[in-house]
Specification:
The complex is a heterodimer of chains A (about 600) and B (about 190). Chain A contains 18 helices and 22 strands. Chain A has about 600 residues and is of the alpha/beta class. In chain A, helix 14 links the parallel strand 14 and strand 15. Chain B is α/β, with parallel strands linked by helices and about 190 residues long. The chains are: A alpha/beta (about 600), B alpha/beta (about 190).
């Protein structure tokens, strides 16, 4: 049993893959983590997706089968080297994995990276289960080498995390010699001009060859209509099991017109079922093949069996009553919250009580600050964007929009990923009396994706080799006012943060405290003395999992309480308590 | 066979669904599972589906088609009750984890509705944390629920015991074995 992610890692290993890189992002995090189990594979989480891609390009140039994996939005970061790398021939087989997220389960947008693959002149494969994820990975690496083409494997979040039975094979051993100096690897004119024809011819050759690829599946039911689909949608469609012929595509770009017509010519009409954009539908229409698809099936979200069935009813292809989604009952909601002992908790408690009303957030666990009950951030856009946006808001305010403090919040992972250039940019045309406060939440890990290392992890964790000192780095860049705080010293942190928000200029506060989940914080738990507690709920408002109000025997009214099993002893609640009712338990 | 498992982020659904899936595979079935992983913070609602039979296409359980609802937390079980067949079975860890809205007095925890639900289905519930803690570690709470499921499924008990032994940390094997047996005998 393997997940789609694990199956890709296994396929890479079996294909003789040697260099795997990534930047952690849901839904593809597990691919690189699974690659690390194979001794012969060099695997790294790089600083960001662009760097990860570049390292893998180097691997391919030097003759190794190489793979880079990222979530869909990571391709935006990697786009610059990608769009030029695809002009060159690959040497060792090269595969890019994009984890698309229909339904935006853990993402800020829903971009369909099949479009990106076509834009970058990459052939694309689209597996429908873990077995195919493994098989297609191997196939893509082999074809990449044969056709000197960087391949894309598109997978979606559902399949990344779904387990199914996979048959394992032995790994092969393969490597090519290191590339030799040649203008085809140096993309300046006239080599880059020639490369346009090389890319066209390479795709044409793959289109021709695809007529004999064994990646498609055809099920003839003798119907008038043919359904064309690909990826996980196929399995949801099989669940509906309509009495209609199905062509499931595995190799989805470039499509071979002759091959497609050899099927569609046998039918009166063609329906395309695919998640997100009408990619296959549009390819068919470009060939002049009449078809419908997005007319009946949503352009957004996942297409599960229920939605497919409803669409087929709308299209008049099957009979029955349409069903509404009925998976969950309306009841009390349950929002995620910061872990017990999370270093972000005191910072947001302080911010919520501060004068700052314009808070610009970023991507990380602290994105939660936009939700109830913290509910303090005004905006979240993309990795590292808070710094530039904050500068823009500040400058706009100085141009007469409004005058108020602007606070920007960024985590250490995001700082290293793409925050640094924006910090440098802050000093350009900086004026006095422009009030901006930047809070860097340094928990020394990329926490939201499960605690991967980053540029500063080595300061906390002996096994990590990167020890970037954020304060020293910022001072080297030229910032004058950089202050470190220990956020578990609540009072001191509160004073510094409030002072800096009030300070009419640019300041940076680095809050240093390790991620409670990653570093498994577990200290002596605290307890509430109900005789002292006044039931004011100040501690409850920090929204810590072990805290809740309860009735104590012989005491009037509700008082706070702490579940000792869940408490990790960070002491924030004890520090916010106005009457000293929260005390450290006796050490056993 | 359709098994729907629901709970709260941090309760170990991924590991538990992995054990059920591996047991079913070793029993000779085709298996597909689905773990819904959102943000990795704790405390949000999470679910997993496990489906096995001779041939499984989609990993998603159609609404109202679950044979079992494994509720690792009562409210979450209640939230997903519509997934259950009319003659489906509920196996519940009755240890409550209060959501923020209840802690902040914005909503009431639906105790009565949960009790009614348990009465209207074949259901088995207990405080699995307490049971597991009694054997030495509350982390084995889900194993109590697995024991309950094992009793109700027609798969050899030894396969369950073997897979659990392989998947839990070495020092926790005995605690998990006892927790499993407790759940098995409880049903």
């Amino acid at each position: 049993m393997l997940t789609g992610n694990e199956a890709i890692a296994r396929g890479f290993y079996e294909a003789g893959g040697k260099m795997a890189t990534s930047y952690p992002g849901s839904p593809t995090v597990q691919i690189l983590e699974a690659c690390k189990q194979y001794d012969d594979v060099y695997a790294e989480f790089s600083t960001n997706e662009k760097v990860a891609l570049e390292v893998a390009i180097g691997g391919s140039f030097a003759g190794l089968r190489s793979m880079v994996s990222m979530k869909h939005v990571g391709m935006n970061i990697a786009a610059d080297p990608l769009m030029t790398f695809t002009e060159t021939p690959t040497n060792g087989g090269f595969l890019l994995i994009t984890g698309d997220d229909p339904g935006l389960k853990s993402s800020q947008n829903e971009q369909d990276n099949r479009v990106f693959g076509k834009f970058a002149n990459m052939p694309i494969v689209d597996p429908s289960d873990a077995q195919e994820a493994k098989d297609f990975t191997k196939f893509a690496l082999e074809m990449s080498e044969r056709y000197e083409a960087p391949f894309m494997l598109r997978i979606t979040s559902r399949l990344c995390h779904a387990r199914s039975v996979v048959k394992l094979d032995e790994a092969i051993s393969t490597r090519k010699p290191v590339f030799e100096k040649d203008m085809k690897y140096a993309m300046i004119p006239p080599a880059s001009v020639k490369a346009q024809y090389f890319m066209r011819d390479r795709l044409e050759a793959l289109s021709q060859a695809s007529q004999s690829f064994d990646l498609n599946k055809y099920e003839d039911k003798g119907s008038d209509v043919l359904i064309i689909t690909s990826g996980i949608t196929y399995n949801h469609l099989k669940e509906v099991n309509p009495d209609i012929s199905i062509l499931k595509l595995g190799f989805i770009y470039p499509l071979n017109e002759g091959l497609i017509r050899s099927y569609t010519d046998q039918y009166k009409s063609v329906i395309v079922i695919e998640e997100m954009m009408p990619f296959i539908e549009n390819e068919l229409k470009l060939m002049g093949i009449a078809c419908e698809g997005k007319k009946y099936f949503s352009f957004t979200g996942e297409l599960d069996a229920r939605i497919i069935r409803n669409g087929l009813i709308d299209a008049g292809l099957i009979e029955g009553d349409k069903k509404k989604a009925g998976m969950t009952l309306e009841t009390v909601n349950r929002l995620p919250l910061f872990c017990a002992g999370c270093p972000h908790r005191p910072i947001f408690d302080i911010l919520k009580k501060s004068k700052a009303k314009m808070v610009i957030g970023d991507i990380g666990c602290y994105s939660l600050s936009i939700l109830d009950p913290i509910d303090i951030s005004n905006s979240i856009i993309s990795m590292g964007a808070t710094i530039g946006i904050t500068k823009g808001i500040r400058k706009a305010m100085s141009l007469g929009q409004a005058e108020e403090p602007v606070v920007s919040v960024i985590g250490d992972g995001t700082f290293f990923h793409s925050g640094i250039p924006s910090f440098i940019n802050l000093l350009h045309q900086q004026k006095d009396f422009e009030n901006m406060t930047f809070l860097i939440l340094d928990n020394r890990t990329t926490a939201m994706t499960g605690g991967q290392h980053n540029g500063g992890s080595g300061n906390f964790n002996e096994q990590d080799d990167l020890h970037v000192d954020i304060k020293a780095l910022l001072e080297t860049i030229g910032f004058k006012r950089v202050i470190e705080v220990d956020q578990f010293d609540y009072k001191a942190s509160k004073k510094v943060i409030n002072d800096e928000i009030a300070f009419n200029g640019l300041s940076i506060v680095i809050a240093k405290g390790q991620c409670a989940l990653k570093y498994k914080t577990k200290k002596t738990p605290y307890y509430v003395d109900p005789e002292v507690c006044i039931g004011c709920k100040t501690c409850i408002k920090t929204n810590c999992p072990p805290l809740k109000m309860k009735t104590y025997e012989g005491i009037n009214g509700l008082k706070s309480s702490i579940d000792p099993e869940m408490c990790v002893g960070c002491g924030v609640c004890a520090q916010v308590c106005p009457v000293g009712a929260i005390k450290l338990s006796e050490v056993k | 066979m359709n098994i729907m498992m629901v709970g709260v982020g941090g309760q170990g659904l991924v590991m538990t669904s992995g054990i059920i899936a591996e047991v079913a595979r070793r029993a000779g079935y085709d298996v597909k599972t689905n773990d819904v992983i959102g943000l990795s913070q704790r405390g949000g609602r999470v679910w997993a589906s496990i489906r096995f039979s001779n041939m499984v296409y989609s990993m998603n359980i159609p609404d109202g088609e679950a044979d079992f609802l494994l509720a690792l937390e009562p409210l979450e079980g209640y939230r997903y009750r519509e997934m259950l067949k009319d003659d489906g079975i509920i196996l519940m860890n009755k240890r409550i984890i209060y959501p923020s809205d209840v802690v902040f007095d914005k909503a009431e925890y639906p105790h009565d509705e949960i009790d009614k639900m348990l009465e209207s289905y074949e259901s088995y519930g207990l405080d699995a944390n307490e049971v597991a803690q009694g054997f030495g570690n509350k982390m084995a709470a889900n194993t109590v629920i697995l024991g309950m499921l094992a009793k109700k499924l027609d798969i050899d008990k030894s396969i369950w015991e073997q897979v659990i032994k392989e998947r839990v940390p070495g020092k926790a094997i005995e605690i998990n074995q006892k927790s499993f047996d407790f759940g098995y005998d409880f049903v």
